[in-house]
Predict the 3D structure of the following.
Amino acid sequence: MKITKCFCGGVTNDTKILKNGVKMKVQKCAKCGEIYVSGSEMLRYDIIKGKSSIARKIRKSGDSLIVTMPKQIVDKFGVHNGDFVAFEPNEKEIKIKIVHAE
Ligand SMILES: [Zn+2]
């Protein structure tokens, strides 16, 4: 969601800040300097800083990109080595379905 008005009555503009080494797209009030951060940008910050336990970094392996599965997901869904994942893309997200081999 884009905020265009600050509580002080000022107008906010898109800008970038550096927070603990992470570049963030934020809204900054031109009048009082208040900074507004969207929920998705905060989530992105937490993931980059390693504060999200269900996020994994995508890595390169040969010509493929690979991603590991968090232990709590493995445990909850009973995922085993050799099982499959099916990707179901929607407009903005991808749903990952576990398909058991046995
Ligand atoms: Zn303001």
Summary: The longest helix spans residues 39-48. The first strand starts at residue 12 and ends at 19. Helices lie at 39-48, 71-77. The radius of gyration is 19 Å.
